[in-house]
UniProtKB/TrEMBL annotation:
Keywords: Iron, Iron-sulfur, Metal-binding, Pyridoxal phosphate, Transferase. The keyword Hydrolase does not apply. Coiled coil: none annotated. It comes from Oceanobacillus longus. Its cofactor is pyridoxal 5'-phosphate. SUPFAM superfamilies: PLP-dependent transferases (SSF53383). It is an enzyme of class 2 (transferase). Residues 4-365 form the Aminotransferase class V domain. Belongs to the class-V pyridoxal-phosphate-dependent aminotransferase family. NifS/IscS subfamily. It catalyses: (sulfur carrier)-H + L-cysteine = (sulfur carrier)-SH + L-alanine. InterPro entries: Aminotrans_V_dom, Aminotrans_V_PyrdxlP_BS, Cysteine_dSase, PyrdxlP-dep_Trfase, PyrdxlP-dep_Trfase_major, PyrdxlP-dep_Trfase_small. This is cysteine desulfurase.
Amino acid sequence: MEPIYLDHAATTPMAEEVIQAMLPVYNEVFGNPSSVHSFGRKARQILDGARRVMAWSIRANEKEITFTSGGTEADNLAFVGTALANRHKGNHIITTNQEHHAVLHTAEALEKQGFIVTYLPVYRDGKIAIEDLKNALTNETILVSIMYVNNETGIIQPIKEIGDLLRNHQAYFHTDAVQAFGLLEMDVKELGIDMLTVSSHKINGPKGIGFLYVKENVKINALQYGGEQERKRRPGTENIAGAAGFQKAVELAIQNRETRRNQYQIYKELFIEELKEHGINFEVNGDIESTISSIINISFPGANVETLLTNFDLDGIAASSGSACTAGSVEPSHVLTAMFGKDNPCTTNSIRFSFGIFNTEENVKEAARRVSRIIKRLR
C-alpha cells in the first residue's frame, strides 16, 4: 500500500533541486564566512547570495534579513528581542490566543518578567476582529504579534488592515509567516510589517534554517552572545549549505507560486468532494473561503483524534491533529479551543490535512477514500 503524505504543514520533503544545490557546498565549501581568506570569501559569497534572494522574496533590503535556525528562533528573537529593547517605551504586548507555541510560550515567559500581554480572541471563522485590536492598543503597547496564516486551520488573518492600523503607532508589528510564505505574495513595506518570520523546511528546503526580517529602524536586542555575525543580532557561524538550499527552495516557491496555489486548491476540493461522495459526516473548521490553499482542518463528529490518527497511519495516511509541536498529545487543540470554546467536541475530533508538491490528484483522492473507509469502520 502506497503511503500518502498529507502533513505538509508540519514539514515538507526536500525538493530534488534543493538537494542538488546543497551537495556542491558540502563537497567544496568549508570556509568560515567570517574569514578574510579565499575559503571564507567563497562561503561569504554563497551566504550573501542567499540573503539577497530572501530579501527579494518579500521586497525588503538584504541588510534587513537575519538568518536563524528556523521559525521558532526567529519568533523568539522578534518577540523577546523587541520587548527588551523597547521596554523604556512601555511594557504592553498584544498577540492572539491561537498563535504558534513559539509565540505563546514566549509571551508567557515575558509575563513572568513583568510585561503585560493581551491575548486577542479569534472567532468561529478563525479570524481576529480589527476592532478588538484597536480597543487593546494603549500608549504602552510596544509590540503586536499576529500570525499571517494559522498552522492548524490555514485561516489567513487581515494582515494589511493590521499593518495600516499600526502605521501611526509606536508598536512594532511582527507576523509569523511560516505557513503563508511561498503561497501568498508579500511586500513587507506595503503591508506595514516590521518583522516577519520564515522557515525553510515548510517550503521544501532543509531543516535547521530560517530567517527573520527586521525593518531597518526596529530596535531589537540579540538573545545570544558571541561573535558579531548577522549584524550582531544572531552570533554563531552561519549554516552555509543550509542557506544554499534555502535559497533554491525560495526561488522555486516564488517561481511556482501561482501553479502550486492553484494545484493545492484543486487537491483540497477533490478531497472534500470525495468525502461527500462517500457520505461522510464532517465540518470544515473556520471560514474555508479565508484559508490558504494548502491546509484544511476537518471535524468528524463522534470521532476521536487519537483513534483516527492511529488508524490513518495504519492505512498509510499521514495527517495531524494540529501543530506538529504537539503531535502525539491528547490535549484539545488550543487553536480550535480559541475558536469554539473548550467544551466543543471539534477540539478533540478534528484532523488537519495539508497538501504539497509531492501530492497528485490521484493520491489525494485515494487518501480521501481511505479516510472514508476508516470513518465508516469506526462508527
